[in-house]
Amino acid sequence: xxxVNQQRTNCGIKWRWLYFxxxxxxxxxxxxxxxxxxxxxxxxxxxxxxxxxxxSNGDGVGDLRGISSRLVHLKDAxxxxxxxxxxxxxPMVDFGYDITDYTAIQPEYGTMEDFAALLAEAERLGIxxxxxxxxxxxxxxCEWFQRSVAREAPYTDYYVWHDGRVDxxxxxxxxxxxxxxxxxxxxxxxxLHPVRGQYYLHQFTAQQPDLNFRNPAVAEEMREVLRFWxxxxxxxxxxxxxxxxxxxxxxxxxxxxxxxRDPLSYGFTQHIYTxxxxxxxxxxxxxxxxxxxxxxxxGGDSRIIMTEAYANITFTMKYYRSGEENxxxxxxxxxxxxxxxxxxxxxxxxQDFVFTINKWLTYMPRTGATxxxxxxxxxxxxxxxxxxxERIDAIHTxxxxxxxxxxxxxxxxxxxxxxxxxxxxxxxGDSVTGGDAFIVFSRDPERTPFQWDDTAxxxxxxxxxxxxxxxxxxxxxxxxxxxxxERSHYKTYQALVRLRTHATxxxxxxxxxxxxxxxxxxxxxxxxxxxxxxxxxxxxGADRMVDLASVFxxxxxxxxxxxxxxxxxxxxGDIVQSDRLIVGRYEGLVLQGVPLTSRTRDRxxxxxxxxxxxxxxxxxAAVIASIIIxxxxxxxxxxxxxxxxxxxxxxxxxx
Length: 655
Description:
20 helices; alpha/beta; single chain
């Protein structure tokens, strides 16, 4: 655990007041209410990793029919939309992120008829289907690449080709890679193709050649892929590795970071010429217009874009929309927010959590944007492994009560953990992190089969083996057992999903405070609606008293427990006192107060004209103060920001 500097903890009370003024300002400038209340703003999204969700034919690999047969689970959990990791034709070097044909289904997953049946079942249950779109690169087995290798028109320049540099130490004309660019998965980002006699760019594996988006024909091919699946009836797309689409022309060397001395490591250079270029955002704006035009022309609910880009906060925010003040171009509905993954872990303090959450809300556009919170995915350790199994309910309480959209990775709702034995998969698992890096960076442990029940293979498959080994804890930890139990991770998750449909959670403001090093408290408020207070205890220490009334003076003296964790001493409906709440170890509580009525607001507020002027001033002050915070100033004695960037996802895998 981080040790708090006691000297700073005892700083003057005036700095504490500054923090609370800032917190109030943020609470009034980061609400999620927009002019529209669309389906994607009020649902929970769920990622399905098709290989691991449900196997329908006993071959040990999950498939589309298996997904269809289990969609009722999503309905039961309260999920409204699911995005599927790639299901397209692929040699599976990177398990579908190396695509041979964007308009064909991978045979081991099923057929186009199976996909149509999946869409029909999802529609029956009221669940939207989002597809994983991988535009940056194809498989080297793709017909486009094979014809580009042969210099066949019009495919000659579909990929990024280069003659390379002459080796000055060679007398026989040997050529070297064009520059010092590295692959995300280690080694040079260039491979010499013996047939074409040129180097091709691959920012990921050598079997994943980068498409050349500076070629208008390539951009149109990708637009046609989107149209193909829109015609099938999908509700949108999650766009993979979107900040890698373009590279600077001229292919200059990238500057060295000075922190990694291995020239083949991705951390050796600053990726200023291969990532986060203005053209990346422009392409997202173009795709958004395509989807908006489709919805206008064909009707129905909005089709949406979700973008994956591991980038700094200012770069990430550009995916929402362009910077023009009068008529900005709209972009991603959901630029994925990975801060709960990259910036926090089991050693993080309450101050770290509050700072990290407010960081997104502070930088997010003031209007027309909806926050989102991604807690896990197929490239990151599971929640219970990163934060500790004992904190699963508390972290889900956090996820599902923050403003905006929640994204859940399959199995997290029942508290699945990484299976370390999955790295011994005899070649069936994560091949792109093979070799010496396999044990350290393998993504297999978080991709193991869903644990449906305590029968063989956890009910995932009737076959003799599964593509990755099932976690050995499946006999105790499985969905069937948790549904039978009076209290469980799953029932806590279900209750929280139901609770977040309340107007206060969908549209209300938020004010977060680090009550102590280990206790986070925040209030969710909305005019003429119920007020909720969330209390998260990260500590394993003894029970402690929390005086919520001292932090949020407008709370009613008594509060009702609306949700509690599976190990909590509290039950839904219990009455607690706001000025002397007993909080247990690893507690995650949602407490409900009385509606914040117009009468109460009028009694406590200043005249409306003066109030409006005050809030305009406070909003400006909040923006300035947030910039100061981002630069690392520690006005608040409990240091909520001094370790920003200290904890990053191990391996920094981008896909």
